[in-house]
Design goal:
Layout: H1 3-13, H2 15-35, H3 43-68, H4 76-106, H5 116-143, E1 160-161, E2 164-165
Helix pairs in contact: 1-2, 1-3, 2-3, 2-5, 4-5
Length: about 170
């Protein structure tokens, strides 16, 4: 539900800005989930989780835009495949690591028999770790020196790749 609006935001405001906005939203939602008291009930879980989800959609759309923007047409398939592979590996690894964080923080060997307090402690710790990891990703994104979709272009706006014009573009 958030993919198309996220794409419009990336097109309108730029991939770099929306990458940062998406990561900030993910960090904020995760942080709220790490500190929200259980007295807030289901809304205390659903609202910040919706923020995380929307932030992820904005980040992923902007990230895809950034990665694919300056790829030569004859390399788009390979780069797209590598992007999908890296994203899948990250999702699988992240789910495993966060599951281990939850298991360690809940201090139980059988989560099906864990107390509500143990599950709550595991969830709070897991979302706090998630927020910290997203903040680290934000620092990397902001500190990378990425100049947005104008990176790799000459003064006339024609795309360049490692100092040479892209195939099919006119010379300066």
């Amino acid at each position: 539900m958030t993919g198309v609006p996220a794409g419009r935001l990336a097109d309108r405001f730029g991939a770099r800005r929306m990458t940062a906005v998406g990561l900030v939203a993910m960090a904020a939602g995760s942080f709220v989930l790490s500190v929200a008291p259980s007295a807030l009930g289901i809304l205390g879980y659903v609202v910040p989780l919706a923020v995380v989800t929307a932030g992820y959609a904005v980040f992923q759309t902007a990230n895809n835009t950034s990665v694919m923007a300056d790829v030569l047409p004859d390399r788009r398939g390979v780069v797209s495949g590598l992007l999908n592979l890296s994203r899948n590996l990250g999702l699988v690894t992240g789910a495993s690591v966060m599951g281990a964080v939850f298991a360690g923080a809940s201090a139980t060997t059988d989560v099906t028999r864990a107390s509500a307090a143990a599950v709550g402690a595991g969830m709070r710790t897991t979302f706090l770790v998630a927020a910290l990891l997203v903040l680290a990703a934000l620092a990397v994104a902001l500190g990378s020196g990425y100049r947005g979709l104008t990176a790799g272009r000459n003064r006339t706006g024609k795309a360049r790749t490692r100092g040479r014009l892209r195939r099919g573009s006119a010379g300066p």
